[in-house]
Amino acid sequence: MLEAIQFSSLREFFEMGGYAFNVWSVYAIFSIFVLVNMLLPILRKEKIIKELKRRASFEKAETNSVREP
Amino acid sequence: MWMWFAKLGSPRWFYEISTKWLPWLASAMCILMIVGIVWALLFLPPDYQQSFTTRILVIHVAVAGTSLAFFPLMAVAGTITLVWKMKLADMVAKHAAPLGAWFSFVTLATGSLWGSVMWGTWWEWTDARLVSMLFQFFLLLSVVALRSAIEDPDKSAKACALLSIVGCINVVIIKYSVEWWNVLHQPSSPLSTSNGSANGPEFWMATGVMILAVYLFFIVSLTLATRNEILQRERRSQWVQEIVRTS
Amino acid sequence: MDQVTTIEAFTATLKRDLLVAYKRKNDIFNPFMFFLIVCSLFPIGISPDPARLGEIASGVLWISALLASLLAMDSLYRNDFEDGSLEQLLLSPHPLYFLVLAKNMAHWLVSGLPVVIVSPLVAYMLSLPDDAYWVMFLTLLLGTPILSLLGSIGVALTVGLGSRGLILAVITLPMSVPVLIAGTLTVQEALNGASLSGYMAVLGAMFFGSLTLAPLASATALRISVT
What we know:
By secondary structure, chain B is an all-alpha fold. Chain B has helices at residues 2-8, 11-43, 54-67, 70-84, 87-118, 128-149, 153-185, 201-233, 238-246. Chain B contains nine helices and no strands. The longest helix of chain C is centred in the middle third of the chain and has 30 residues, at 96-125. Chain C is an all-alpha fold. Chain C is 81% helix and 0% strand. The A-B interface holds A 4-7, 13, 16-19, 22-23, 25-27, 29-30, 33-34, 37-38, 41-42, 44-45, 48-49, 52-53, 55-56 and B 33, 37, 41-46, 51-53, 55-56, 59-60, 63, 99, 102, 106, 109-110, 113-114, 116-117, 217, 220-221, 224-225, 227-228, 231-232, 235, 240-241, 244-245, 247.
C-alpha cells in the first residue's frame, strides 16, 4: 500500500507538483465548509436546549409563585 | 401508504427516527470522507495533462454534483408545503436554502481554483456551467433573503415555497439559455470544457467515494439543522419538553 | 345584481387600472425618464465613440429596460394593497388568474410600452446600426411584457413588506436572465445578418410561456401575502 503513495518525500507532498496553492486552498476551503456546516448546527442545538431549559425553569417558578399565596 | 405519509410529516417522528439514524450516517460520512481525502491526496496518480490538479476535481465534482440537488429538493418541499401544509417540509426547506448557497459558493471557488491553472483564468464567461452556477447561487440567496424579510413564519414558509418552485424552473431555463448564449457567442471556445476525460478509473473511484461522502454530509448537516428547527418550533409540546428535561 | 362574466371583470380591472395610472402620472413618467437617463449615462461612462457604442447599444438598451421595468414594478400592487382593493380582488368570484393578467397588462401598457416606443430614438442616440432598429423594437415589444410578468411574481411575494425595494431586485433580476439573453442575442444576430426566425421563436415561446404560467404564480403569491 505504501508504495502506491505518489510522493517520495513530505516536501514533494506539500508542493503538489507545483500546484500547491490551488490544491491546498481547495482542501482548506472544503474543510472549513464541512466543519462550519457540521459545528454550527451542533453548537446551535446546545444553545437552544439551554434556552428552553431556562424558559422551563422560569415558567415553573412562575406557576409556583401563583400557587403559593 | 397515506399513514406513512402522515407519519413522515410529523416532526416528532422525524426527530426520533433521525436520533436513531444520525450516528450511523455521521460515522459513515466521516469514514468515507477520510478515505476519499486520503485517497485523493496521497494515492491518486498524477494525470498526464493535469498533473496533481485532479486532486481539486475530486472535491469540485463531488460538491458540484450535490449542489444541483438543492433546487429540486426545495421545489418538492415547497410543493408539499403549499399543497399538504406539512410543517416538516418547510423546516427542511428553510435550512436547505443557505446550505445550498454554501454548496454553490464552494463549487464556484474550487472550480475557479482549478480553472486558474488549467484554463489560465479564474473566471470564464464562456463556460455555461460557471455562469449558470453563479445564477443558481444568486437564486438561492434570494430565497434566503425572502425568508428573512417576511417575519410571519407561516407566510414566509409559503412565499419561500413558491419562490423555490419558480426558482427551480428558472434554474433549468437559465442553464439552457446560457448554453445557447455561449454556443452563439463563442463559436470557437478556447477552453476544453471536458472535465475528466483524461482521468482514469482511479480518479472516478476516488471521486465516487467523495460524492458519497459529500452527499452524506449534506444529509447529516441538513438533518441537524432541521432537528434544531423542530426543537424551536415544537418547544411547547410535551415530548420536546421531555427531551429538554432529560438532556 | 347582474352576473358579471369573467371577461367583463377582466376589462373592468384593466380599465380601472389604466384610469388610476392616468390620474397619477408620476407612475408613468418615472420609469420612462429613468430609462432615458440611464441610457444617456452609458456614452458618458464608457465612450462617445459611435463604433464602440454601437457594439454595446443592444445590451445597454436591454439592461436599461430591465432596470426601468424593475423600478416600475413596485407600484403594481402597492397602492391597491394599501387601500385594501387588492383584498377585494382576491375575494372576487372570478379566477384570479385573469384579474392578475389584467393588472399586469395595464401596468405594462403604462410603464413598459412607453419605453418600447422611445427605444428606436435611444437606439439612434447610441448609434445602433440601422439594420437592427426594427429587431430591437420587436424584441423589446415581446420582451418587456415578459419582464413585467416575471416581476409581478416578485412584487406579489413582497407586497406586504416594509422595505421591499432591494429584495425585489434580488428576486427578480436573476429570473430575467433568460429573457435578457434571448433579447440581446436576437439583436446581435440581426447585426450579423443571420436569419432571425429561430431567435424570435424562442422569444415568442418565452412570451407565451410566461403569459400562461407567471400570472398563476403571481396569483398564488398574492393569496399568500395578502391575508
